[in-house]
Write a structure and sequence with these properties.
Chain A: It comes from Platanthera zijinensis. Chain A: One of its GO terms (biological process) is cell division. The complex is a heterodimer. Chain A is mainly α. Chain A has 15 helices and no strands. Chain A has two domains: 122 residues, Cyclin A, domain 1 (Orthogonal Bundle); 103 residues, Cyclin A, domain 1 (Orthogonal Bundle), CATH 1.10.472. Chain A is 62% helix and 0% strand. In chain B, strand 7 and strand 8 form a beta hairpin. Chain B folds into two domains: 83 residues, 2-Layer Sandwich (Phosphorylase Kinase, domain 1); 213 residues, Transferase(Phosphotransferase), domain 1 (Orthogonal Bundle). The chains are: A mainly alpha, B alpha+beta. At the A-B interface, helix 1, helix 5 and helix 7 of A face helix 1 and strand 4 of B.
Chain lengths: 312, 303
């Protein structure tokens, strides 16, 4: 048995020895209790970052390092997504002192290592830090892995927005059903892109999933938005106001992205996930952080840029 | 591990010794299980990571013994992981035995059997809904809180790290009594039905206060089953004669379940017969079992 982790099926142990069972689970509604369970436990998997800007810059440094490793190893975006989820949940529980930037690197590497093990993707410590001058030995990474595991209470089968896509797609009005694959693919792209947005950790994973699907529906065809929106509001787990706020947050993020993409002269899909844009968003986040009363002095944004290592 | 005082050895689990221990600070009683896996150069082995995180998720159900934490220890240069579980005072085997022996020998109250079976089906349905088979359900693996009347599934045999071995840690032969016929006949593509078969055997054992099929070898185990339920035929179980270990067995006629279990009401007999259905795909599922009329008299709101 392997039990590889699948972002879209966090609750299902994908057991290769019992294909019959797994296939039944993966195809549709074999388990009507699953959404209930997901909604009941999603809050355990959320990460609220403490207000401290130290943590904020730690987050952005860890994110950019993960994206960098993702690019240089051509990794599946879902692996990086899972690693970032671990980083966020770790930082929500433990503070990393501002001066200890090496811990942030160690954290990012360990979370990538754990994510690769969860997804059964072979990634050696060397793959994880090939471009760095200073290499952590496996003993150190191992200790950090254990610290991450105990901090996250071994809840490594993260419940993320991806876990809810299938559920909310079942609310799709019949006339749009034809586009279900395109819609899901587009929403997934939106989720991958918006993970670095600080606002994205303020919402429940289920709300982010619904909002990403709505934004995706609107982008595919504006006429899809309203029927899907009213169908989703029938879902007892969604609140109209929060959903609107979350859609607006995603919209805001996407439009910033587009402007940057235009100024960088490349398409938004490609530019969205480079380490450079990750950092730009951190900077934007830091600046907007000021408006909600955090004590930013601009130094962190500068530090972010300084610490940023561009991929070669 | 300094967090806990080891109190006593409470058993030999599938993966090694199990200790009753106490949290030094909170006084909470726990069960400590050492995993056989050692950490290697690459940190925590991927399989162990995936299995423990799955166990962590499954143990969110109140019908599954709760995993409270994972502790790592370095001893003589070896790195070991201990799983820390909630502690329950007894298991179903010891509990049933307490009704069998001594001056107080008497049948288990039928309400209690109903309640235990319901909780067992809940736990198994929970595991199955997460794509996990238990594969080694037996009374020793079902922990019981006597005072509260609670039963929980323990010892989930998840996979490589916790593989059910042919011989247990103490070289005691692993019991075949609860093993489904398709497994005994060498089927490799078995599924949820294997657990339901075990549940059926456990159900009958609570009623009888002794095992239903107590074979001491795989062949003897099959013959016990065939003698009681009749030798399976292609008509009853399509494909049975193509299973790897199928032979021409003596032809037995099925016995009457209700005569063999006079203490069990007709609904109970009906549920048991559906759990002991030969053809795995016709066997009742744990979830369906929860809705069986046998449980109609049970106050389900307490669960």
């Amino acid at each position: 048995m392997e039990f590889d982790f699948d972002l879209e099926n966090p609750l299902a142990g994908v057991d290769h020895d019992t294909q019959q069972l797994s296939t039944a689970l993966l195809l549709g509604s074999a388990n009507p209790d699953e959404p209930l369970t997901l909604f009941a436990v999603e809050s355990d998997h959320m990460s609220f970052l403490p207000g401290a800007l130290d943590q904020f810059s730690a987050r952005c440094n860890a994110h950019s390092l993960i994206v960098q490793v993702q690019f240089s190893n051509n990794l599946d975006p879902s692996l990086a997504y899972l690693a970032v989820n671990y980083v966020d949940r770790f930082l929500a529980k433990r503070e990393i002192p501002r001066e200890k930037t090496w811990i942030v690197r160690l954290l990012a590497i360990s979370c990538l290592s754990l994510a690769s093990k969860m997804k059964n993707i072979d990634l050696s410590p060397a793959d994880l830090q090939s471009e760095e001058g200073f290499i952590f030995d496996s003993q150190t990474i191992w200790r950090m892995e254990l610290l991450v595991l105990s901090t996250l209470e071994w809840r490594m089968r993260s419940i993320t927005p991806f876990s809810f896509l299938r559920f909310f797609l079942s609310y799709l009005p019949l006339e749009i059903r034809l586009h279900i694959q395109a819609l899901k693919a587009h929403a997934s792209q939106i989720l991958f892109k918006s993970q670095n947005e600080i606002k994205s950790i303020e919402f429940k994973p289920s709300v982010i999933a619904a909002a990403a699907l709505l934004v995706a529906a609107r982008e595919l065809s504006p006429s899809h938005f309203l029927p899907f929106h009213s169908a989703l509001l029938n879902c007892e787990y969604l609140n109209s106001e929060t959903l609107t706020e979350c859609c607006a947050a995603i919209d805001g993020y996407i439009s910033t992205n587009c402007i940057e993409a235009a100024s960088n002269g490349c398409d938004s899909g490609r530019s969205a996930l480079t380490p450079v844009t990750v950092l730009d968003h951190c900077r934007a986040g830091l600046e907007s952080g000021k408006t909600v009363g955090s004590a930013s002095d601009g130094c962190d944004a500068k530090m972010c840029r300084t610490l940023m290592r561009r991929p070669t | 591990m300094e967090k806990y005082d080891k109190l006593e050895k409470v058993g030999e689990g599938t993966y090694g010794k199990v200790y009753k221990a106490q949290d030094k600070v909170t006084g909470q009683l726990v069960a400590l299980k050492k995993t056989r896996l050692e950490m290697d150069e690459e940190g925590i082995p991927p399989t162990t990571l995936r299995e423990i995180s799955l166990l962590q998720m499954l143990s969110q159900s109140i019908y599954v013994v709760r995993l409270l934490g994972v502790e790592h220890v370095e001893k003589n240069g070896k790195r070991l992981l201990y799983l820390v579980f909630e502690y329950l005072d007894t298991d179903l085997k010891k509990y049933v035995d307490s009704y069998k022996k001594g001056p107080n020998s008497r049948p288990l109250p039928s309400r209690l059997i109903q309640s235990f079976l319901y909780q067992l089906c809940k736990g198994v349905a929970h595991c199955h809904s997460h794509g996990v088979l238990h594969r080694d359900l037996k009374p020793q693996n079902l922990l019981v809180d006597k005072d509260k009347g609670i039963l929980k599934v323990a010892d989930l045999g998840l996979g490589r790290a916790f593989t059910v071995p042919l011989k247990s840690y103490t070289h005691e032969i692993v019991t075949l009594w609860y093993r489904a016929p398709e497994v005994l006949l060498g089927s490799t593509h078995y599924s949820v039905g294997v657990d339901i078969w075990s549940v059926g055997c456990i159900f009958a054992e609570m009623v009888r206060r002794q095992p239903l099929f107590a074979g001491d070898s795989e062949l003897q185990q099959l013959l016990h089953i065939f003698r009681f339920l009749g030798t399976p035929t292609e008509a009853k179980w399509p494909g049975v004669s193509s299973l790897r270990d199928w032979h021409d067995y003596p032809q037995w006629k099925p016995q009457s379940l209700s005569q063999a279990l006079p203490n069990l009401d007709s609904e109970g007999v009906d549920l048991l017969s559906k759990m002991l259905e030969y053809c795995p795909s016709n066997r009742i599922s744990a979830k369906e079992a929860l809705d069986h009329p046998y449980f109609n008299g049970l106050d389900k709101s307490q669960f």
